[in-house]
Design goal:
The structure holds two protein chains of two kinds. By secondary structure, chain A is of the alpha+beta class. In chain A, the strands form two sheets. Chain A has a seven-stranded antiparallel sheet with strand order 3-9-8-7-6-5-4. A two-stranded antiparallel ribbon of chain A has the order 1-2. Chain A is 20% helix and 31% strand. Chain A has one domain: START domain (Alpha-D-Glucose-1,6-Bisphosphate, Chain A, domain 4, 2-Layer Sandwich). In chain A, strand 4 and strand 5 form a beta hairpin. The longest helix of chain A is centred in the last third of the chain and has 18 residues. Chain A is globular. Chain B folds into two domains: 222 residues, Alpha-Beta Complex (Quinone Oxidoreductase, Chain A, domain 1), CATH 3.90.180; 158 residues, Rossmann fold, CATH 3.40.50. Chain B is 27% helix and 20% strand. Chain B is α/β, with parallel strands linked by helices. In chain B, strands 3, 5, 6, 9, 10, 17 and 18 form a seven-stranded mixed sheet that branches. A six-stranded parallel sheet of chain B has the order 13-12-11-14-15-16, with helices on both faces. In chain B, strands 2-1-4 form a three-stranded antiparallel sheet, with helices on one face. The longest helix of chain B is centred in the middle third of the chain and has 12 residues. Chain B starts with a strand and ends with a strand. The radius of gyration of chain B is 20 Å and the shape is globular. The mean pLDDT of chain B is 94. Classes of the chains: A alpha+beta, B alpha/beta. At the A-B interface, helix 3 and helix 4 of A face strand 4 and helix 3 of B.
């Protein structure tokens, strides 16, 4: 380490390896490129809640429908395996798949992959104190293999899978910080116009907001 | 219930809609006793704000009586009288903890829309487009208030509604504008726009120690109100009046210490650049008309401060950034961090330091509101502020 700057009272140690490949040898690295039929999304959130408590919420597999969009049921099928059911808001389309946890580091990291069914995805989530330990940084890296399953997925939420991952992390953060997920579904309004349906799709308002109740972390 | 709905550009109508219900544990439902039309509602009326949808209920200045609370609201109960801030804040995120409540992370269900436009999303607002959350507003008989445990101010004194209603937006907004203007004792402050926010910016500038306030507008009724609280007025539409010359004349050639743009994106200008901006916005080459902001940057003294409570939404053209840099000015702006101001300003009202109801010119029913939007937009009937009783027949 160079000796030219000797006064930096709060500086972190220059990270050599950052969460899910964000920093490599002290240098920022972009998320993996979409290619070979794989599409990637990497997203992070600063959450004011205890790192361990956040890990616990995420790890509580059967309660994931409380905060993930369109996931209507997750059933544990073994110590590390579960069965997932995703349904469109109008209940007209359903897809199901099985998932397996590949790595589980309590309070820090969970990695998983699908093991058959109508979605082909893999991902990991890492919980770590933010620089200066102000809060917890939650970072998700998820990969979808494009194919008929993924396009089927896309037709269900009405968002592409990448945006769905971003929205789910947003719901997770809101729920952990406040005990609820902000919503407007079910509020009053006057007569809607002819293109209201198109506009609702555009605004992402056709997707049912997950219920989110009673899961505040802090 | 009856509610005022946005039905398209220059079209608002009263419709009978379903009553709001509790949707989340920190919600409250209030029976609205008074609500007001805000100058920024006119931006919606004029179609300047994107992501509005036919049937959206307008209104973000309101107060009322608590009807019902969600299971996690512990500080309010049925029958409480409250004023509700127009920005919705969760109280727990990074930004609420920093008291930048209008930047709350957790209250905009459509945050992705604002992220696409601004990089990051601010808090949700009542009745102000889907980009800002798509929440139903309070120009209605009832309204749902999310995070009622964080925002509303309980009014336990017998002050009439009209004296406390403006704590919902424009008084705090004017006060934060004066605070952002970094006023020192005996400063000279210039305020563009003598509508409601301008009025409270002028009043707050005096409260914070300004010695002279220069108020700029073109409507006689507004200029008269400004003079009534002690400001020197300048009518920019009068023949031979140049605002920049007036500012020099009224400051010994130095320029005002602080300039406040309480006009925002639909600025009107008597000069050629006003026409330039009208044409460019019509052709969608810029989204906001910015003649006031240009003038404020030109007019402020060296090392002075420009504070912007007026709403801007998009892209501005021909900003004199060289002047801003050359003079080393400071610019501060943004949606009001309501929750910092409601209590202290209520205390000022209670002590009799100010009676905010002085700006009210019209008291109407909900059914009269659609016509009054048009009247105010067209600057007729000497409107300075319109207050609605949603239950009056």
């Amino acid at each position: 380490m160079s000796k030219v700057l000797n006064e930096k009272p709060n500086a972190e140690q220059l990270p050599t390896v950052g969460t899910v490949g964000i920093i490599v040898d002290g240098h920022y690295a972009p998320p993996p490129e979409d290619k070979d039929g794989k599409t990637w999304v990497r997203t992070s959130a600063l959450v004011h809640a205890d790192t361990r408590a956040l890990y616990e919420i995420w790890r509580d597999t059967e309660n994931i429908p409380l905060w993930q969009e369109q996931i209507v049921r997750v059933t544990r099928t073994g110590e590390t395996t579960s069965h997932w059911v995703m349904q469109s808001a109008d209940k007209s389309k359903t897809i199901e798949w099985d998932s397996e946890i590949l790595a589980d580091e309590p309070g820090h990291r969970i990695a998983w992959r699908s093991i058959g069914g109508e979605s082909n995805n893999a991902g990991e989530v890492v919980f770590e104190p933010s620089p200066g330990s102000r809060a917890t940084m939650v970072t998700v890296l998820q990969e979808f293999r494009m194919g008929k399953f993924t396009s089927l997925w896309e037709s269900i939420p009405g968002r592409n899978p990448k945006q769905a991952v971003i929205e789910n992390l947003r719901h997770f953060k809101a729920l952990a910080e406040t005990g609820e997920i902000p919503r407007t579904e079910g509020q009053p309004h006057g007569p809607r116009g002819k293109i209201a349906d198109t506009k609702r799709s555009l605004y992402g308002e056709k997707i049912t907001t997950p219920p989110g109740l009673n899961r505040k972390a802090s | 219930m009856k509610a005022l709905c946005w039905m398209g550009s220059s079209k608002v109508e009263v419709h009978t809609v379903s009553d709001p219900t509790i949707l989340n544990p920190h919600d409250a439902i209030i029976k609205v006793t008074r609500t007001a039309i805000c100058g920024s509602d006119l931006h919606l009326f004029d179609g300047f704000i994107p992501t509005m949808e036919e049937g959206d209920i307008l209104g973000h200045e309101f107060m009322g009586i608590v009807e019902e609370v969600g299971k996690d609201v512990n500080n309010l109960q049925r029958g409480d009288r409250i004023v509700v801030p127009f920005t919705i804040a969760c109280g727990n995120c990074e930004f609420c903890r920093k008291k930048i409540w209008s930047a709350c992370d957790n209250t905009n269900p459509n945050a992705h829309l604002m992220e696409a436009a601004y990089g990051y999303s601010g808090s949700g607002l009542f009745g102000y487009s889907h980009m800002m959350g798509g929440y139903a507003g309070g120009q209605a008989q009832y309204v749902r208030v999310p995070f009622a445990n964080v925002g509303p101010l309980k009014i336990e004194s017998d002050l009439p509604d009209e004296k406390v209603l403006f704590l919902s937006d424009i008084f705090p907004t004017g006060f934060m504008a004066a605070e952002n203007a970094q006023i020192q004792e005996n400063d000279i402050v210039a305020v563009w726009g003598c509508g409601p926010v301008g009025q409270f910016s002028i009043a707050s500038a005096f409260m914070l120690g300004a010695a002279r306030v220069i108020a700029i507008d073109r409507f006689p009724e507004r200029l008269e109100l400004a003079r009534s609280i002690g400001a020197v007025t300048v009518d920019y539409s009068e023949e031979d009046v140049s605002v920049l010359t007036a500012l020099k004349d009224l400051t010994g050639g130095v320029g005002p210490d602080s300039c406040i743009d309480a006009v925002g994106l639909e600025a009107h200008s008597a000069q050629l650049q006003g026409m330039y901006d009208k044409v460019k916005t019509a052709l969608m080459l810029e989204t906001d008309r910015s003649s006031v902001l240009r003038q404020a940057i030109q007019g402020v003294r060296k090392g002075g401060t420009v504070s912007i409570p007026g709403v801007y939404g998009g892209l501005l053209d021909k900003m004199p950034f060289g002047a801003a840099f050359g003079k080393g000015i400071t610019m501060k702006m943004g949606q009001t961090n309501m929750h910092n101001y409601m209590k202290p300003l209520f205390a000022r009202i209670e002590k009799g330091q100010i009676d905010p109801s002085y700006i009210i010119s019209h008291r109407i029913t909900l059914d009269e509101a659609p016509d009054m939007y048009k009247v105010w937009r067209d600057k007729k009937q000497n409107v300075t502020k319109i207050v609605i009783d949603p239950w009056a027949a």
